[in-house]
Amino acid sequence: MDGFHDHLLLYDVETPKKSYIYKEFKKVYKALPQTLQRRLALLQKITHRQFRLDAKFQIRLYMLEAEYHNHCAIYHQRRNEIISDIYEPTDEDCTFEGNDEEKAKDKESEDVIVTFKGIPGFWMKVFLNCPFLEGITKKCDEPILLHLYDIRITYLANDSVGFVLEFYFSPNDYFSNSVLTKKYYMKSVLTRQDLSKYEGLEIHKSEGCLIDWKPGKDVTTKTVVEEQTDSNGLARTKTVPNKSFFNFFCPPVVEKEETIDNKKRILLDADFEIGYRFKDDIVPKAVLFFTGYYLKANERSLEDGHPRIHKPQCKAMNMYTI
Fold first, then answer.
1. Which domain holds residue 243?
2. How many structural domains compose the chain?
3. How many other CB atoms sit within 10 Å of the CB of residue 156?
C-alpha cells in the first residue's frame, strides 16, 4: 500500500490526535509522487485564494455593520433618555403592534404615583440577569453599577478594524472617571504557510483603561491579614487581587513575539468572548435582559432542543477575575 493510503488509514484510529495526524502526513507528503504533490499544492492554493476573498467579504461586512450601528444610534440614545429621565413616555409613544398584553393592565396601576426618576439600576439589573456575565459581576460591584447609566459602542475608523465599548457613569464615591473604555482590535490571520489559523475577522487584541479609584474604594483589590506578624508582634497585612467586574478594564497583555501559554490563551479567549457579547447581545438587547425575557426565550428554545445561550468560554472569566 502506498504512503497516501497509509495516511488515510490514520483516520481509522479510535481516538486520533489531530497534531499526530498532521505530523504523520508531513512525513508521508514528502514521499508522495510529484503528480499527487502538485494536486494537493493546487488545492492549498485554491483554498488560500478562497480565504482571501472571504477576508475581503469580512471587511465589507464589518463596514456594513458599522453603518447599520450608526443608524441604530438614535434608538440607543432614545433608550438612554428614558432610563435617565430625560424623556417621559406618553401612552401614544407606547402604542405599537404586538403589545396588546400591556394594554390589558390593571386600572389601579394607573393611579399609582411614581416618585423615582427614569429606570433606576437599569444596567445593574441587565448585568445580574445576563448569563454571559455570570461569575463576573460581584456584590462589591453592585453599588458602582447603580451609577452606570449608558453603554455605547463605537466602531474604529482610519484603517483600523475593531470597536470600543464605552461605559458612562454618574458622579460616585468610587472613582473619578466619567467614562471607562475597552477597545478591541480585529484582524484576519491568513498565511499560506498555515491556512488552519484563518477564522475570518476576529479579535486579536484588547486595551483597557486606567480607573482613577478614590482612596480605599478600589474593589479590584482587598487587604488580607497574613499569618505571620512583624518584629513588634503586630499583624501584617498585604494587598491582593479581588474578584470584580472592573478587572474587565485591565485585560491580559501580550507582548510582541510572546509565546502565549494555555492559561493566558484561556483568559484572552474569555476576554474576547465577553467583548463580542457586549457588542452583539448585551448592548443592543439590554431591555430583554432587564425584563428577563431573554432567559425566558432561551428556556423555550431549550425545550425545543435548540439552546440560544452558549457560555462555556465565558466561564473562564472566573479565572480572569482572580
1. 20-86+117-226+234-304
2. 1
3. 16
Report phi then psi at 150, rounded to 5.
-165, 150
**Residue 118 has what DSSP assignment?**
S
CATH number at residue 265: 3.30.1120.90
Higher pLDDT, 143 or 320: 143
- Determine the 3-state secondary structure of 175 from DSSP: strand
Q: What is residue 90's predicted lDDT score, i.e. its pLDDT?
A: 87
For residue 282, the surrounding DSSP H or E stretch is none
Residue in 98, 93, 67 with CA at minimum distance from that of residue 79: 93
pLDDT at 17: 54
Q: Is the dihedral of CA 289, 291, 297, 299 positive or negative?
A: positive
Residue 176 has pLDDT above 90, yes or no: yes
Alpha helices in the chain (DSSP H): 3-9, 18-30, 34-83, 100-103, 122-129, 142-145, 262-277, 286-291, 293-303, 317-320
pTM of the model: 0.79
Give Cα 291 to chain centroid, integer Å.
21
**Ranges assigned E (strand) in the chain:** 148-155, 162-169, 179-188, 201-207, 221-229, 235-241
Q: What SS3 class is residue 166?
A: strand
Q: How far apart are CA 271 and CA 267, in angstroms?
A: 6
